[in-house]
Amino acid sequence: MDEGNSRLIILASGSPRRRELLSLLGLPFEVITSEADEYTPPEWTPERIVRSLALRKAEAVAANSNQQQNAVIVGSDTIVVLDGLVLGKPVDEQDSRDTLKLLQGRSHQVYTGIACIGLPEGRTAVDYRVTTVTMRGLSPEEIDAYVATGEPADKAGSYAIQGLGATLVDKIDGCYFNVVGLPVSLLSGMLSEFGIQVLNRKGE
Length: 204
What we know:
Order of helices and strands: HEHEHEEHEEHEHH
Oligomer: single chain
Structural class: alpha/beta
Number of strands: 7
């Protein structure tokens, strides 16, 4: 669908990891960082958290965009969950150490929500993916050395699977890109609902 593939994709995230993953699709896009409030009530389920925050981010960018443009706004949110406990981004290095001590030698779940808002029609689609990550046992010295690299600083769960954090992971069950922060297979399917075809694009 030529007309659909002329639609601009707007990524409502300042995350360099999401930007890199979206670029894998080979589609034109621009980045507008969302300033949405990320508070969620403690009783919310992980599914509700990532779906709601992804939509909130996309809606915040949509509200400040030209409502007549032919575009799809993509919002995303990722959290790490261990035995029902949601682990966000660390507040400092000690918080990173404490989080990694909890995760080491155990399995946890990574949830990522995606929300798409089509302009100008205002159509919305929201979905999510879950991946189980099993981390190997870590010594206190290994945890200290990893935290000292600075890599955990802005990562949910205090590790980056696409970086040195890969050395901490024993196995994963599910989508790898979901753990990085943007499940591209899910996003590709959602974009097709808005007429944007990642594969079999005409005129190429």
